[in-house]
């Protein structure tokens, strides 16, 4: 589909030939990089298993733990944290060339990249540090729960991960995201008044309204809301305000309010918990299988983290099915949110806003139906427009 040079009839009325070709070129560049990266990951995985890299790293972290802390192999959680940090650093470092190419070649070529090399590496080291700190805490808690709760650990893991999710939802926008972006209250004016009136109209408990400097890194645009109960906040990307007019911003926010009104976030959280149940229930069936460990040269011990790492490869066929269901449900929610915005009288501005954002972001306006059915969490543009116009 990305190689086509003639616009399909369905999009000719609102997509110029130049915009169509630019979007296809952007999609082709991203797809090419993804293919190369996927091939690299496959080769890397093959090498890791063929040459027993995982057992070597596990043994190396055990020696480091013993020499620095004086701990023996009975301190499995500590060794698992060291293993996690080591492999995370290695994976992050090997992905740098692909990230650099994607950001400073592809995104730059198509007019999206706004960040400097210094900002990129600043973000890289911040992300690495946060992953090390919070990832180690969550991993330690998870392994402790599994160790302490017996063969039905999956029930307790669900409770633990639910608590982690709620803590993450709470602290991420308040403490973590400000480490990367600047949030400023939306200034008084016509746009703020219109958004506040919209929130009042649908009984949305809006407490704060922010603009985030998304243009600091990219020309892509977005808007989202967060917060629990009566403490809701809306965040607009400065690029969104620049690319759309007042009515279109309100229409897009009405769409987001539709997600809130119909409890889509809650539904997806519940789906996520069911997914975790499936993952860890199936893991409980194989975690004690000695052959799974010995086949990959873990002959002297059966660390839980190693078991889970190997199990993820076994789980991939199930994950493919779950991903398909998740994306299908997500697309259904997007249609419902569009319908909600339309019910508030925003049909035309929503349509115009979606077209503008799609063209500004050079999204694929003519995706393959089978590919989008599996990979897309949002419906293709033409399908959304047809639903709005019905």
UniProtKB/TrEMBL annotation:
Active site, renumbered: 256, 338 (proton donor)
Organism (species): Zancudomyces culisetae
Compartments it resides in: Endoplasmic reticulum membrane
Mode of membrane association: Multi-pass membrane protein
PANTHER family: CAAX PRENYL PROTEASE 1
Location of the CAAX prenyl protease 1 N-terminal domain: 7-182
Name under which the protein is recorded: CAAX prenyl protease
TM regions (residue ranges): 81-104, 124-146, 153-175, 268-288
A GO cellular component annotation in the UniProt record: endoplasmic reticulum membrane
Domain of life: Eukaryota
Keyword tags: Endoplasmic reticulum, Hydrolase, Membrane, Metal-binding, Metalloprotease, Protease, Transmembrane, Transmembrane helix, Zinc
Residue span, Peptidase M48 domain: 185-389
Role, per record: Proteolytically removes the C-terminal three residues of farnesylated proteins.
InterPro entries with a match to the protein in the record: CAXX_Prtase_1, Peptidase_M48, Peptidase_M48_N
């Amino acid at each position: 589909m990305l190689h086509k040079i003639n616009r399909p009839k369905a999009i000719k009325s609102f997509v110029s030939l130049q915009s169509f070709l630019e979007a296809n070129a952007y999609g082709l560049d991203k797809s090419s990089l993804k293919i190369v990266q996927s091939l690299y990951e496959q080769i890397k995985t093959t090498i890791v298993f063929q040459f027993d890299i995982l057992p070597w790293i596990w043994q190396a972290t055990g020696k480091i733990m013993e020499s620095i802390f004086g701990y023996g192999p009975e301190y499995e959680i500590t060794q698992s944290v060291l293993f996690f940090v080591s492999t995370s650093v290695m994976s992050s470092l090997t992905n740098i060339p692909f990230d650099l190419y994607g950001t400073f070649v592809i995104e730059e070529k198509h007019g999206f990249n706004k960040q400097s090399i210094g900002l990129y590496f600043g973000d890289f080291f911040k992300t690495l540090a946060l992953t090390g700190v919070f990832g180690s805490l969550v991993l330690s808690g998870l392994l402790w729960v599994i160790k302490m709760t017996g063969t039905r650990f999956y029930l307790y893991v669900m409770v633990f991960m639910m608590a982690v999710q709620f803590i993450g939802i709470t602290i991420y926008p308040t403490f973590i995201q400000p480490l990367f972006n600047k949030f400023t209250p939306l200034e008084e004016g016509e746009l703020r008044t219109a958004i506040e009136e919209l929130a009042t109209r649908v009984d949305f408990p809006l407490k704060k309204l922010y603009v985030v400097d998304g243009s600091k890194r990219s020309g892509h645009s977005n808007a989202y809301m967060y917060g629990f109960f009566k403490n809701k906040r809306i965040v607009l990307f400065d690029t969104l305000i620049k690319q759309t007019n007042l009515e279109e911003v309100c229409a897009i926010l009405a769409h987001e309010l539709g997600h809130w009104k119909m409890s889509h976030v809650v539904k997806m959280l519940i789906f996520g918990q069911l997914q975790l149940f499936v993952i860890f229930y199936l893991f409980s069936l194989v975690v004690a299988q000695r052959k799974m460990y010995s086949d990959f040269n873990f002959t002297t011990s059966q660390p839980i983290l190693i078991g889970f790492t190997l199990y993820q490869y076994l789980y991939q066929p199930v994950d493919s099915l779950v991903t398909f269901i998740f994306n299908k449900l997500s697309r259904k929610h997007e249609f419902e949110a569009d319908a909600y915005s339309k019910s508030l009288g925003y049909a035309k501005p929503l349509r115009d806003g979606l077209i503008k954002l799609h063209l500004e972001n050079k999204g694929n306006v003519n995706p393959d139906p089978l590919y989008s059915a599996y990979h897309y969490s949002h419906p293709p543009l033409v399908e959304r427009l047809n639903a709005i116009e019905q």
